[in-house]
Amino acid sequence: MPDSWTSVSKRLARRIGPKSYRDWFEPTKLRSLTESELHVEVPNSLFREWMERHYTGTLEEVVAEVLGSPRRISFVLPGEGVEPSEAREVPQPEAFAELGDDVAPEMPKLDERYTFETFVVGSCNQFAHAAARAVADAPGKSYNPLYLYGGVGLGKTHLMQAIGRALMSRRSPRGDYLRMAYISAERFMCEMINAIRWKRQHDFRVRYRNIDCLLVDDIQFLEGKEATQEEFFHTFRSLYEDRKQIVLTSDCAPREIATLEERLRSRFECGLIADLQAPDLETKLAILRRKAEMENAVLPDDVALFIASRVRTNIRELEGCLNRIEALASLRGRDPDLELAKEATRGIFPDDSKPVTVEAIQRYVAHYYNVTVSELKAKNNARAVSFPRQVAMYLAKKMTKSSYPEIGKRFGGKHHSTVIHSVNKISAEASKSDEFNVLLNRFMDEIH
Ligand code: ADP
Ligand code: MG
Predict the structure, then answer these.
(1) How far is the CA of 153 from the centre of ligand 2 (A)?
(2) Residues 321-354: pLDDT tens digits?
(3) Backbone angles phi, psi at 436, to 5 degrees
């Protein structure tokens, strides 16, 4: 059994990556393993919450793969008793296996492709780009904090890292290079928890409060994480008071992050908030051309147009699509053409035979009513947002196989009764107004 336990650990590390493994599984212990259950001891309840949310499924899968049959996974706290049904347990009180050298290095690194030079500016991102430039030119002096937000794949991380890279070559008034930390909010939290666990809070604080510039990616992750928010607040305040630059990104505006502590919200809002919009066709084409150029790849106009018009907003998808087409073209030993582009992207774009997704509905409805998808998912009940949300929920019920609770979940975790209410309300409106009914039908025709 210890061997199989080592196998579980190794496989798990491979599955989730050495960084996550180190952060989350290394501080855990196997408490007990029976024929039906597996108890893993975790250091504290915050830790447990995280593990339950993020790793139960993966751990279950890996355990089933290695042991040949599934176990029910529980995370227990030190000193917490395990049910008496574990009398027949096969105890293996052994820490998760050491991973050796492939365990993650310290700070996350910047991606060298993410620079201002490679960032294509269009009307959708002009403002955010200008703000990022200003911060890179005069850190701590122009906009502090700079808060960049927008949907997935719209270039938030790219811009933030471009700032980081630009700052890396600058020297502080003391004459040495600027000290910079780039970190995701998620990692900030796990480092903090580990610091508490290992009683290294002091080191943690020193580390994040003695820098010249702090870049924190995906701050929406702090939603509902009160202890992390608290710690982050102190880090933030300390840096801010020392006039150090802070840059934050998020998938939504500060006011939309439910349970964001008021102190933090008002701090975020006192700097500059810039949003990244979905790219228009021209920007998408320009990004594709720039990327093809950088890779010395041939990209005929009709292929570029095909990709740009099929990929709606996500620039990462745009790039993925181009990569696949280029890969297939080289496999075939020819330059890409429209026919090949269609083949390379088959099954990627939703076509008529593929079921509609709740996400596609949200994107369409958000675009039509000129709100953001995150607004649709937020808790804001202003009519400008709540009406489109109800329409989107109605369409989700009509056009997909999702249940009410599932739909609620996709809308930022709303209760299923909210979804039922929305569907009924929109049905009632549709039966009252022909015009509205026609509009709903048009939506159903156009969403795919
Ligand atoms: P986000 O953090 O907003 O989810 P990313 O910054 O990771 O998005 O961007 C996704 C991908 O799209 C990255 O590979 C990035 O380089 C690229 N990208 C986004 N915006 C642009 C742009 N304006 N010009 C060039 N590439 C872009
Ligand atoms: Mg990002």
Answers:
(1) 7
(2) 888 788 778 777 889 999 888 877 776 665 545 6
(3) -65, -40
